[in-house]
Amino acid sequence: MMITFYVAASLTLLTTALAITRSNPVHALLYFVISLVSMGVIFFTLGAPFAAAMEVIVYAGAIMVLFLFVIMMLSLNKVTVHREAGWIVRSVWVLPLFLVAGLGSELARVFLGGGSVGMIRVVSPQEVGVRLFTTDISTVELASVLLLTGLIGAFHLGRKER
Amino acid sequence: MNLQGAVPLVILTILAGGLPAVVAIRRSYRLICAVTGLGLLAALFSIPYALRATSPALPELFTFNALSLGFIGLILISALLILVLAYSYWQPETPLYREEFPLLFAAGTLGAVALASAASFITLFLGLETMTLAMIGMIAYPHFRPAAEEAGLKYLVLSGMSSAFVLFGIGLLELASGSLNIAHIVASSAADAASQQMLVAGLAMIAIGAGFKLSVVPFHIWVPDVYVGAPAPTGAYVAVIAKIAVLAILIRTINLPGANLSASMSTLTTAIAILSMLSGNLLALMQDNLKRILGYSSIAHLGYLLVAILAAGSIGQVAVVFYIVAYAVTMIGAFGVIAVLSHASDVRDVDKITELRGLFWTRPALAGVMTLFLLSLAGIPPALGFIAKMYIMAAGVHTQLWSLLAVMVISGVIGLFYYLNIILVMSMKPSDDAMAVSILAISIPNRLAIAMVSLPILAFGVAPSPLIALLKLMFD
Amino acid sequence: MITYLWLIPALPLFSSVILGLFGPVMGPRVSGAVGTISVGLAAVLAVSIGLHWISHPPTNSIYEQTLWAWITLPGFSINLGLYLDPVSLLMVLVITVIGCLIHLFSTEYMHGEDGYSRYFAYLNLFVAAMLLLVLADDLAVLFVGWEGVGVCSYLLVGFWFSEPTNGYAARKSFVVTRIADIAMLAGLLLLSTKLGTLNIQAMLTGAVATWSAGSLMPTVATSLLLIGGLGKSAQVPLQTWLPDAMAGPTPVSALIHAATMVTAGVYLVVRTHALFLLAPHVLDAIAVGAVITLLVAAFAGLVQSDIKRVLAYSTMSQIGYMFLALGVGAWPAAMFHFLTHAVFKALLFLTAGAIAMRLNHEQNIFAMGGLRSKLPLAFWAFLIGSASLAALPIISAGFFSKEMILGAVAAAPMPGLILWACGILGAVLTATYIFRVVFTVFLGPLKTEVSGSYGVRIAVPLVTLSVGALVVGWLETPEGLGNQTIFSRFLTPAVGVFHHLPVSFMIPLLGFAAPLLGIGIAYVLHRNGTWARATTTMPSKLTIFIRSGCGFDMLYDELFVVPYMTLVRVLRHDPVDSMFAGLQYLAIVAHRRLRAMQIGQIRRYASWMMAGSVATIAILLFS
Amino acid sequence: MIIWQTPAGLALALFMLGLLGLLARRSLVFVLMSIEIMLNAAGLLFITAGMRWGNPDGQIMLVMVLNLAGAELALGLILILRLRNRITNLDGDAANILRDVP
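YS: structure for the whole thing
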């Protein structure tokens, strides 16, 4: 389990890093999909099989495919990829790295404290489902309105002018 | 399941879910606006019923008490006023389908109400995001305007960033405490120093998200661009409803048992308040765009509000809510004047100060109410804004926040420059193209909406006691 | 009758709202009538209340009328109430009666102007705010009126907005007084926190009970209140806005910048005099400052060539006399001078307006001349007004009030005589500069075309005020001239008994002589052409120095000239502004810096937010 | 055995990578992707919390985060599609008609 976790974690880190540094968006996105799939593996090792399935099916399988379709619709060609590559110069990374290092070092401190080590309890999909459809039913409703809002917004914005 | 306390929320959910069905059956702008308006009214009038609930509704996820229902009422009233403005704003000749706007409007209001009454971080987050996504749709709604599109994108990206911060913060809180319940997290003490640190870090990241939504310095930077790009009714929505909802959850959290402003938290709030008051007013100083001025002025006003929040005790709290009310009606009024003067089919709204030139001549009544709004923003009697500021000052004096008060006074003076400048421009002799404004017909609903915001500004500015008595009920 | 007191401010307020909403529809005739009649009704009401008051004064000579609760906080509340005592009654009478006359004058003066109804709406609003100011029983309500008159003054000075300088002057006057208002607000807050109330009477009682004379608290509080008063009343060092405020229409100058608003500072001190008595040092400072003001302004008046600016400086100087009276605790003397000054200064301004009306709005006195036969009404009115301003003995109202002040000053303890001497010098100068105007404008050869004629709406106010400027002085006369004390007896319940203290016979004698000497100087210099020559030849450095308000402008200039050199160069024609310009410059620099952040790029915005986040988390985690 | 600090640290690292992409990349496609990375990092943090306390809260939150990620991405992509005509190459820096620098 531990080895699986570490392998998946390294893969996630690596592919995410690759995703944000590629100049070709399609490549980057594929790296990100890999990172999501390995994230699913991590979820599984952390005792969350339901979340792992969701991550792979919904995130990597549906949302990212949507992303990919749109990028393909943008019909980016070699020229644009080339120009994109021209933007990824060293100077661009200086300020962001500086800021991110600042924030990261501040937040990393809070994880350094000692913590307890216990057995991982697998929280089954059934448990999650029961919660979602009993006490948390109103959150499901709210989430559906959230999706509906996104849908209506995207529907309107994607529509041609009258 | 006893839902009596949650009736406003239930009504709004039915509204937000049912409206697409209405559109599917009959695509009529008037019908949809009417249904939305009726739904909001029904939710508003169900508040007294909800207040009488004996057992808490959905206690795990929502809190419905006098305080949260008060804020819900405020959100609903503001939403109704903005809806009236929006109804007339989208004229038939606008080159887009108008029917989706009320849909987004209703969904966003549901989000705001959920956020204002959230008891758990799940509902807090869902409410916040529903509201945000609806606002993105409403900002970019006139997508034939490049500025609107761009404003929508800016808001999407930057609010996406702030949402990620909030989510990460919630994650830290949950990791440290094992709970998503706000009251539980506030009341419980951390198990060890590491958890304590994690709680603080989580809180800080949520504060960043809240700072973004409240548009306080240093998270204010998106405000002017989005306000300018958004159509005027959406501008009012972003400036008023989003902020009331976030302030509601903030004030409710502060009022929870066991909550206390830590020293570092008050240092932070003080710094943010000072920066917001000063930068907001300084930024507005030489502006020629009215929406931008309103954006900057909202930054400053949120700074004043933070002063009131810092002034603890029950005076401070009533002062906060009073200030929110004054801010909300005034902002709706000011954006309303822009909405009234603008054509949705144009590529931008009438928002240049020079375009208001001679308004006193061409439309004296409109110029008069606009002056009232500006006086209220500047905190000059007899407008409501004066009393509101007076209350904050009294609360500040009570808790001896002298440095904050000094900054408040200084930035108030800076503010006078640009508010008065607008009044002066309005009183100038009209230029020829300004005469176009005079032939513009103002629709009856618009007249009604503007009258309905200017009346309380004047009436409560002269005799505020009834309003104060009402607001005090929220804290009993 | 007295129960209708609330109608006095309500009438003009109501009419202002009506005019603001429906003015353009009503047309100029109706607008002017509505505006004038509303103030006229208030005046009638005020006069009948006044008459009733004299025959049946209420208990303790105080009438209070509570309207409603305005702000209620635990331990702090403001009730909207009216408070009438002899002092406020006097103010109300002056405001409504003179206000009514000025409204009447305006209906003709503003004939054919754009925004006629707007003008009356503002003017009515001003009257309402001023009445609220004087009738307030609460310092907060007083402050509301205080701000209200400021706003109206701002709107009216900028009334002729087509010229950019007017808008600028309007803003400047508002901003300068605003700075003073902040000090005043601070004073109010201090008083409210220390004494727990803002009700004026309760506060005064509380102050007298808790604080000893000369202790720190009353000194600080009165100083802050005083700064507010100095700003409103255009006293050194906050005087610079008044001459610029002359950009507004002349009746506005007559009402706001001469008769009523600018005396609000005097009223404030009289109203809270019990508090000021606890701060003797502040009173001394008032007296010294007043003497400086009255001399500075009198010198400045001597070299102006614009008739309205002369009058503006004379207003400053005369209010200096009122403050001098306050400084020595002679409250009735200050109020008496307020009364006579309101009458004769309104007269002078209206006459100046009436002259300018006929001369195609010429205001330069050296472009006028020989108008005595062409404009007899204006000549006599201006002469009477000038005589009163110069305090010409016996026949003028100004003489009696100035005598009352100077007598009280001379009788004051030690520095009294020095102050008195300065006052006498001021009197000489006053007579000189005003008769310089009289001689230049009315004597000599005719220089300009005179057109038009006066209607009855111009004549009635001028004649009424002229009669007033001749006779109101007899309400209070010194020993030897009837020893009449109606005025001070009327005020006694509010400010205490006033004693005409015995002084050396030289004092009144010099008081007699000073104006005559001044007029003599003016005449001699007029005869040998010095006045006229001064405008054609290059002005000497001294003249420039005095013309610009005796170096206060220069002082501000020097203080801020080094850091803000470039800006001052731009504003050289108006160095007065450098102090405020300096602050403005700072604000603008900060504005530019902050604005540079708004570059419009998402990435940059995200970086700023990120930087803010780093700082936020650092503060929360590490402090 | 996995202690909870490890996945939490991983979440933090991913969050920072997302931020880095957001701040550094000009192309709006990458900006949107960076936001997704950040949201995903927050999701991992929730799962970690669920693991630490052994409750389903974390997984429920993850579902909601997925919800948001999908909805927000849909809106973002539509806006990008619209902007393509105006802004060549989807250069985020070029989308600056709204600004306050004279």
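YS: worth flagging: Chain A touches chain B through 30 residues (CB under 8 Å).
IM: good catch. Also Residues 124-162 of chain A form one domain.
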